[in-house]
Amino acid sequence: MIVQVGLILVAGVLLVSGWHKVRHPSYYQPVMSDYLLVVKSVPLILPGLLGVFELVVALSLFVPPLSAYGALAACMLFILYAGLISIQLIKGNREMDCGCTGPAAAKTKISPWLLLRSSVLIVFALMGAMMPLAESYPTGWLLSVLCGGFLLVIYYVAEQLLANAQSIALGEEGL
C-alpha cells in the first residue's frame, strides 16, 4: 500500500506541476532560464513541453504496462530538478524563485528543504519503479487513494508553510 500511496503523491505533484507549466508558460520561462546554466533565455515553448511531459509521466503511473517506466521517468525528473537546485545553492543563488508553487501562489525561494522534498519524491518514484501500481496488491485502493490524497494535501500545506516562512523572514506578508 505504501507504494500506491507514494505513487499517488508523485502523480499528484507532477499533475499540478505540469498543469501549471502548460497553462502559464510565460511564468516559467524566466524561472527555467535562471536554472539553466548554458542558456540565457529558454524558448517560450519549452515550459509547455516540459509540462506536457510531466502530465504524461503522471498519467503513465496509472497505466499498467507503462507504470514502471513512468515511475523511472518521474525519478529522473526529480533527480534533474534536485540537481539544478543543488547547483544554484552551491553557487549561492538562494534568492531564486524555485517555480514550485506556480504563478498564483507565494514565490518560494530555493533552499535545502527543496532537496529533502525532492529526495522523498525520488524514493517514492523508485519504489514505484520496483513495484508498479499494476503489480501491487489490488485491494485497499480506496484507502490508498485517500491516504495518497491526504499526503498530497500535507505536501502542499508544507510547501505553503515554507513560502510563508520565507516571506516572514523577509518582512513580507505571508498567505
Beta content: under 5%
Alpha-carbon distance between the termini?
Answer: 34 Å
Shape: globular
Q: Helix/strand-derived class? A: mainly alpha
Question: What can you tell me about this protein's structure?
Answer:
With 175 residues, the protein is mainly alpha-helical. The chain has helices at residues 2-23, 25-35, 45-60, 67-90, 112-130, 141-169. The termini are far apart.
In summary, what is this structure?
With 175 residues, the chain is mainly alpha-helical. The protein is 69% helix and 0% strand.
Key attributes of the depicted protein:
single chain; 175 residues; mainly alpha
Write the layout of secondary structure elements.
Elements: H1 2-23, H2 25-35, H3 45-60, H4 67-90, H5 112-130, H6 141-169
